[in-house]
Known about the structure:
heterodimer; A: alpha+beta; 3 helices; elongated; B: 20 helices; 76% helix; globular
Amino acid sequence: MSTIVSSQLRRDGLPSRRRSCATCVSFRSDPFELESAIAGLRSFGSGFAAVRSDDGLCARHDRYLSASACCAQHELRR
Amino acid sequence: MAPHADLREHAHFDSIEGEEHMANQTARAAAQERQSPWRELLAKEDWWAVWIGLGLVIVAAILFGSGASLKWIAVTPQKWSTLDQIAGQFGANATRYLALFALWLALFGIAVRALGFRLGEFVPAFAVLFVVSALIFALGAWDQASRYNLEPPLVALALGLFVSNLLRVPAWLQSGLRVEFYVKTGIVLLGAGVPFVLILWAGPVAMGQAAIVSLVTFGVIYFTAVRLGLDRRFASVLGTGGAVCGVSGSIAVAGAVGAKKEDAPIAITLVIFWAIVMIFLLPFVSKSLGLPTGVAGAWIGTSEFADAAGLAAAQTYSGFAGQGGITGSPDASVQAFTLMKVIGRDVWIGVWALVLSIIATTRWESNGVTQRADAGEIWRRFPKFVLGFLIASVLVSLAAKGLSYDAYKKTLTPELVAPLQGLRNWAFTFCFLSIGLTTRLRDLARAGARPFYAFTAGVVVNVILGYILSTVVFVDFWQKLGQPVP
């Protein structure tokens, strides 16, 4: 998978860090949204906690990901 | 090449350039946003807990240095035996309670506004929280409270659970129920009551005990989960939830390893279930065994799953000090808990996240996403409120420097430490009430049998191992906690 991603990134001329989840349309890391989406997060945790860093939910992969992750399906948020 | 095709080609390149330009801009903004220390300092509640807690400690220290004290505003209900007495207390101190409410409202209000909450919702929500907390506090000061096990943390939790699960918590009240924010603020204030020399003395033992229990508990949950056929990422999310720091551990590692969307909510359900069971179980089992307060606090710190839950249990046990032969100072259980859980376990979450992220990237099957692991993960996920706890301890230790033990007890404790302890108890009561009011069991994700078995296996091992380490291996050490340090 990493090879596929790398060739895709080279073709676009964008280094992989610029195609990270943080800039993707499918990525949601707003603390309010996360506290609504993740049941129980507010009870003994928090969407605003430092341990969460800038992680968020990816609607495309249905995964909870680090904001620095990336994939071949990255779509820039406008 | 046909003209139209040429135009389309130009348009295509323009589009690519435009997109690339936008990508650069967005990425630059994202990178700046991510790297800006100022954003982090105002966007995370850990830092706000540090600002509020340390701000109060610094003001208290300045007042103490100038011969004054915070104790006027740090009002708490005193022991009472009749309703007339407690009503009289509230009446006589109405101005002080109003001032205290205004202080908390201003401090938390500024913070939640910066975090993006609406003040219009927070103010009435916090007013309700403050009034109910004052009543719970007052109930705990009743001279018959211990006879009926009306410990404030348990009453707050039970009342909150009752209201949220059998009645309905209005939506506008939700913005005032910030469990983690209140507990982190309370922990920073707690630092003021823990001499720094005690942290240096007890920290290494706490870390050693916590490391043993964390590694064993994680291993049991992880390998049981994998043996039961669960995905490795899910197994790691369950494992850190049980072994390191509950909900925070699960959510941090879920992001670090790129877990499935449903993994963290399931782990959170199991953490909440067992954390609530342990809030009631650990203090009463410890009481029935007659454990000294420091020893019980260490066991709770080793075997509870969340800071808020553990503090509820430890604070409950502090109320048992002196009853039925339970030795140790009341504060020793909370101090031992904090050293074990916060210093021993919580601070390592970044390391756990980094290590598991590297393993997930290099050893586990691909999840369709490229994760990046770097050492910066350790700092990004570091629970920053721990710094506030340590700095508060250093500040008060410096204020105590040069004082004799008698002077420490007769001046510094009542004029500086006690008011901060009073404020800490308020913050913890806000937290305990918020736990119950935010825990709606029917809203939690359904865990399923296999995750339950895997997590429960870890719980059983954790509780037994935590008991052995606290009451046998390191018992002499934890018994001494709360005594004057040579």
